[in-house]
Amino acid sequence: MVAPLMGLPGLQMIHKSVKLGQQNSKIHFQTIRSLADTFKPDIVFPMMDLSVEANALGLPALFPEGDAASIRAITVDAPFFRSVKTIDIGADGRARSYAETIRLLREHLPGSIRVGAYISAPYTLAAQIMGISKAGLAVLMSPDKIKQLIELLVPVIRQYASLQIDAGADLVCILDPGAALLNPGQFDEFAVQYVASIVPLLHRHRVDSIYHVCGNTMHVYKLMASSGVTALSLDSREAGVNLTEIAEKLNDDIILMGNLDPSGTLLQGNEVQVRHEVNRLLAEMGKFHNFILSSGCDLPKNTPLANIKAFMETGRKYHYNS
Fold it and tell me: What is the signed CA dihedral for 42, 44, 48, 52, rounded to 10 degrees?
């Protein structure tokens, strides 16, 4: 299977801004459908957006025209806790827009292409709300407070996941970039156990689950696998991830996805370099049947379409010749 994490590059194909893509479900659908029709990946994903759940909880979001939305952190206090308990994320306009994009993709794409959805992991959502530095400090200085927040957010995330599953998502990717900064003990205590509490909901709906953490995860990949997810999506060799070592040490019942460098080779390289790196990666991982060729993280908006084509073609050719 060949399935890069890509959404934003499709905006080049329909000549629309990120802001429009993230707020208009039809434009969002057209963006992803353009990628699907052109490159025919085995899995399509919407545009990666870590702001949806926090924005739905009332946090201010910034929408620059040329980049993904971001959240302005707030001070977490008693009124915020009370407010979260009263909010129905299923009624939020942006959350429903993403679900509608999933519905349109599942309705119009062939069944051979699986439709993925994204949700924020509980720790990363807490870090979005508090600010990544304050969340890291809270882990050390006030662990009970951040745990209280994380536990409050788990039902919100479950509801958002259910909204997208009901819309037709075939799999759900749980995004936890904030957790990459935690040491193994902290990762176990503040991140993975809460992801593990969401996974059964996905599997009850017969939806596969992917756990994605950006950066170097060599210190926590076994913990990631212990969450019960179907697959791990891991960052690039340049970020410090040794995918073959991970494949050799984990049981082969968990799928590994990755891990071509999205901001290096795919964004800044040329077609020859992309083909070389894909062949190198597949030569290393070809003996593992539980591997899906992908990018190490979400492809930047300006990733050359010729490089994506080279990535897909090289992956397909290697697959069919092996």
Answer: -140
